[in-house]
Amino acid sequence: MQDVLYVLSKLLWLPARPGTFALLLGLVGLAALWRGRRWGRWPLLAGLGFYLALLVLPLHQWVQLPLEERFPRPAVEPAHIDGIVVLGGAVEQNLTEARGLPALNGAAERMTEPVALLRRHPEARLVFTGGQGSPLHGGVTEADVARQLWLSLGVPAERMQFETAARNTHENAVNTLALAAPKPGEIWLLVTSASHMPRSMGVFRAAGWKIAAWPVNYRTGHTVAVWYDASFPVRLGEFEWGLKEWVGLLAYRLMGRTEALFPAP
Fold first, then answer.
1. 91-110 pLDDT, tens per residue?
2. Which PANTHER family does the record match to this protein (predicted)?
3. What confidence tens digit (pLDDT) does each residue in 35-91 have?
4. In degrees rounded to 5, what are phi and psi of residue 173?
5. Domain limits of the chain?
6. Is-contact 25 47, C-beta < 8 A?
7. What are phi and psi of 189, to 5 degrees?
8. In angstroms, rounded to a whole number, what is the distance separating the alpha carbons of residues 24 and 110?
9. What is the pTM (predicted TM-score) of this model?
10. Are 93 and 138 in contact (CB under 8 A)?
11. How many angstroms separate the CA atoms of 92 and 149, rounded?
12. Facing residues of 127 across strands?
């Protein structure tokens, strides 16, 4: 069942992602108008209207702001940290396999922040969770890339553990809980993108782990410069990421993987 849900989530998102859906709408409308069907103007206008709205309005910011501000970053760092859990999603395993060097994407702070935390907390151990996040992949897992990167940055091998089978956030939580086996009273931090934190915290709580949020990779702000600085392709990608998180929150709640629609601190 888990495999079926995983494949369905990937297949359904492909045509449903806003950029693709708006393009398909526009093409349907254009084809209808070409054949003399007046109703074609409506899907054409809807598709073009989406792109125009994304160009004029900071939709990519608005869709992510509530997500990123749901779990504020702690003002004071804990004096003692037993462990750090890092979710996959920041590495490019196919590029790493092709070029032999650890490749990171726009969520690279997920990979750099834990290293800084480890240097300040020699008592902490580091757990990375991430297998193959895409149905089309090679032989390198996200965990393989993380291991290669962190070893090159001087992180001792004995301080690291790697969960290599998880394909989504639910599996991240369940598999990592079994691997790390945190003891009662221990302080663990969850490191992931700020916009991904609400769903992540909801899933970890449902799995039975009282972990502390440590968000990174912020993509929003409250200034005009932040709202309009990004190029159009970046805006589209950020909007799609934010919308996917909202869809994920709803889907995980319906599947019983979280105990709240919009988890809060």
1. 998 899 889 999 999 999 99
2. ENVELOPE BIOGENESIS FACTOR ELYC (PTHR30336:SF4), INNER MEMBRANE PROTEIN, PROBABLE PERMEASE (PTHR30336)
3. 888 999 999 999 999 999 999 999 999 999 999 999 999 999 999 999 999 999 999
4. -65, -50
5. 2-67+231-254, 76-216
6. yes
7. -110, 140
8. 34
9. 0.91
10. yes
11. 12
12. 85, 161
CA angle 132, 133, 134 (to 5 degrees): 95
* Residue 126 structure tokens: 């580091």
Radius of gyration of the chain from its Cα atoms, rounded to whole angstroms: 20
Q: Are strands 160-163 and 188-193 parallel, antiparallel or unpaired?
A: unpaired
- State the amino acid at position 262 in one-letter form: F
CA atoms within 13 A on the CB side of 250: 6
- Is residue 242 within 8 A of residue 208, CB to CB? The reply is no
Token digits of residue 18: 């806003």
Note the pLDDT tens digit of each residue in 169-228.
999 999 999 999 999 999 999 999 999 999 999 999 999 999 999 999 999 999 999 999
**76-216 has which CATH code?**
3.40.50.620
Closest CA to 265 of 190, 153, 155: 190
Q: At a CB cut-off of 8 Å and minimum separation 6, what does 57 contact?
A: none
Can you tell me which residue has the tokens 């009662």? Answer: 184
3-class secondary structure for the chain?
CHHHHHHHHHHHHHHHCHHHHHHHHHHHHHHHHHCCCHHHHHHHHHHHHHHHHHHHCCHHHHCCHHHHCCCCCCCCCCCCCCEEEEECCCECHHHHHHHCCCCECCCCHHHHHHHHHHHHCCCCEEEEECCCCCCCCCCCCHHHHHHHHHHHCCCCHHHEEEECCCCCHHHHHHHHHHHHCCCCCCCEEEEEEHHHHHHHHHHHHHHCCCCEEEEECCCCCCCHHHHHHCCHHHHHHHHHHHHHHHHHHHHHHHCCCCCCCCCCC
